[in-house]
Amino acid sequence: MVRNATRRGTLSADRIVAECLAMLDERGPSGLTFRKIGARLGVDPTALYRHFRSKDELILAIMDHLIEQALDGFTESDDWRDTIRDLLQRSRAVYLAHPHAAVLGTIRVTRRDGEMRIVEIILGALELAGFTGEQAARLYRVLDDLNLAFGSLDAGFRILDEEQQAKDQGAWSREYAVLDASRFPRIARATAYLPLIDEDSTFALALDLTIEAIAARAAALPTSQ
Question: What is the pTM of this model?
Fold first, then answer.
């Protein structure tokens, strides 16, 4: 789809990012070239270089835009656990709403305002829990990597075609269900439950376990810290 020509002076970085995110949703990363972006916006591709020096810089801006979406309407809680849980759930929801972008950019560090805001919020939550310095920094990385790993993994599944998704989802109730119980006794005992576990409940459990572990460490901190 080619947009109407953009009037001179109306092209902005925000508009480019929004259109590129839409292109990723529609076509995946193969459509994300400056030539195709320019055609969609109705501008010469060289006009894009006034806002982004490279495609890599554009991808980082798109990822930071997703972080800003996750932060939209977010309010910190008095309970650090609720702050972390809500923030990471919001972030994951945005990644799954834009899976091609998530797969493309969750491994990157955007070095932009949205990312810095979310880092500040998580560190603040950990400070409320009683952690400072290196401890807080390490726990932040644990939470961030958990969020990004699940976001990338689940987004990667969502960009598979329907046939591939069906094969992978059905494996638990087909191939795993008929395994020789003498060779795989533990799988046999779990086979009734494996097909019932979905990505949302798995992420929620992983997040709960991580928060519980952090809370246990917080409870063991010296009172003088």
Answer: 0.90
